[in-house]
Amino acid sequence: MQRSHASVWFVAPAVSLMIILLIAPVMVAAMLSFTDYSLGNQGFEWVGLSNYETLLNYSSYKKMFSASLTYVVIVVPLSVALGLGAALLIQSLRFGGEFYKTIFFLPVMATLLAMAIAWEFALHPIVGVINDTLSYGCDIGWMYNFLTGAWYGVDPASSWYGSSCDQFFPLWLGDRHYALGTIAFIGTWQIFGFNMVLYLAGITGIPRELYAAAAVDGADSAWNRFWLVTWPMLGPTHVFVLTITSIRSFQVFDTVEALTRGGPSKSTYMMVYAMYEKGVLHNLLGIGSAITVVFLVFVLAITLTQVYFVNRRVHYS
Amino acid sequence: MNAQTNWFGETMKHAFLLLCSIIVILPFYLMLSYSFKSPVEIETNTGGFFGAQEMMVDGKCLKAGRPEAECTMRPIVYNYTAAFSEAPLLRYLLNGVIVTLSIFFIQVLIALPCAYALSKLRFWGRDVVFGLVLFCLLIPVHAIALPLYVMLAKLGLTNTYAALIIPWTISVFGIFLMRQFFMTVSDDLIDAARMDGMSEFAIVWRVMLPTAIPALLAFAIFSVVAHWNDYYWPRIVITGDRDLMTPPLGLRMFKSDLDGDEYGPMMAAATVIVTPLVVAFLLAQRRFIEGITLSGMK
Fold this sequence. Notes:
- The structure holds two protein chains of two kinds.
- By secondary structure, chain A is mainly α.
- Chain A has a domain at 57-125 and 170-311: MetI-like fold (Orthogonal Bundle), CATH 1.10.3720.10.
- Chain A is 73% helix and 0% strand.
- In chain A, helix 1 (2-32) packs across helix 15.
- By secondary structure, chain B is mainly alpha-helical.
- Chain B has two domains: 3-86, no CATH class; 89-296, Orthogonal Bundle (MetI-like fold).
- Helices cover 72% and strands 1% of the residues of chain B.
- In chain B, strands 1-2 form a two-stranded antiparallel ribbon.
- In chain B, helix 6 packs antiparallel against helix 13, helix 6 (89-120) packs antiparallel against helix 15 (247-256) and helix 15 (247-256) packs antiparallel against helix 16.
- Chains A and B meet through helix 1, helix 3, helix 4, helix 5 and helix 9 of A and helix 1, helix 2, helix 6, helix 7 and helix 8 of B.
């Protein structure tokens, strides 16, 4: 009797906080998305689905969806492939693996906002070290030949590098054709070390005997061993890495807010930034909440896909 | 495979990984390097890593009417003193410590008893509560930011420490993690404590807490790293008051009111903000990797 009494005191604070700080806000967001609420107004009007119609019809929100999806489509495959590649390489090294592991994990640890500002310096069109190095290469014969593809018989002037040498190198964050790719590059830079560590843990978990067995079955090259043993045995890791990377890519905010504010011409206007801009800066909580709800649906869809795959037993243990 | 090809393969792998390392390190290198250099060296991209460290005169200092001798210093000294004097960087760091530690302690205070009850006590509705925990795990923080902001604004709590801390006091992930950990703790230990006449309350804090130290340490790293680096939430609830800003937000303000040659001091501030976690990481790598990839442990 006394025991059950204690459990109420143990569970009650957590349960009430979960309801007040997690469940209620989701419901409030859903509710606000059907209103025209602004902070400081006395009341609000129910506006039905008009916020959602706005999301579907206005070009800036179309750009928002396409920018968010493009970002995810760039960052997820790149960071997963780089993470897996780095893990495989590091794991096969005789020495020095720990060194690379430490370096590749540094971006995961470091304050992203600070590092974003450092990248902005590196990418500065005039004094930045990246364009500086690229234009330096224009005057070095072999590098110019290599990067323009001239060694392969390509006309240097028609290649990206060659024409950039002739005119100018991109403005990166200031050019609407490059900005999203540049933000995605920073995102990949930040997250791939995290995936690498998860893959390293997955690889260590594969029983050695399986490789011996595969060798008996004639899988003698590293390539065959990878496809026969490593890749399928990493099933659960793949599912987890894909899920967490997709969700994190949808949540990109720091780099957008600090470097582009969604520009130039909305090319990097992604969902979480749009949510912040509409809801907090413009005080349009109805439309901000509608973006929130759509965002939540995306994230839940990713999570449910994960649950589906986990239940399909992508693991062989 | 003979030794020759092995050696070749190994070299190629190192060459490739080194190239990747250079790209990964680049922003860290630039941040440090700019924090050492004079404005001229930054503008012209000269001076190597450390800069020439030639004496420079601080214009603002002269304008303030101080003698020239007092205003002449090496760029590295100028950058770091400016970082601390032009913006309340110390205050930002202190806020970062206050906020991250408060969040962690409250999270443990709330999560530990709940996890204990969920794993070791039998009570009506236990499955419902655990179901609720699992359900809440699905809610991404970005999806509740706006309503929480509205709630806090209605209560007049924006621009307070409370606004920075309250939304994070509940960590369903912490509850889940601790519950999984407590499931592995033997019931005999708890029964023995009850025989000794310990109350349930004492059992949580004097028996369960000490056994959970390794899991708590990993959770501490997870929580502290996340909230030290968090920029999204402070950006929303702290709008004007510099005395409440956390390190990333303070750095962002530094960037917005940048006038001309303040890049050096800004990068010095960035270095100061990034350094504590990076150093801690280098010292206790295994623990950090374990803590940050916790969410991968299920």
